[in-house]
């Protein structure tokens, strides 16, 4: 990951603490996972 991507992900994770609704936390986590590249079949499943 580039420095910009790493910084963006760190900021995103820090802001997740401010989300109070469980549905929104799950949605935010799923959206974050889309941004994380992975070729591992285990992570994708």
Rg over CA atoms, rounded to whole Å, is 12 Å
H/E series: HHH
Helix content: over 70%
Q: What's the N-to-C terminus distance?
A: 21 Å
Structure description:
It holds the Pfam family TPR_IPO11. The chain is mainly α and 45 residues long. It has one domain. The protein is built from 3 helices and no strands. The protein has helices at 3-16, 22-35, 41-44. The mean pLDDT is 82.
Concise synopsis of the structure shown:
By secondary structure, the chain is mainly alpha-helical.
Keywords:
3 helices, mainly alpha, 45 residues
What topology emerges from the helices and strands here?
Layout: H1 3-16, H2 22-35, H3 41-44
């Amino acid at each position: 990951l580039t420095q910009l991507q790493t910084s963006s992900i760190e900021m995103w994770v820090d802001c997740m603490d401010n989300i109070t609704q469980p549905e929104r936390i799950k949605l935010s986590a799923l959206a974050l996972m889309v941004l994380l590249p992975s070729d591992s079949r285990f992570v994708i499943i």
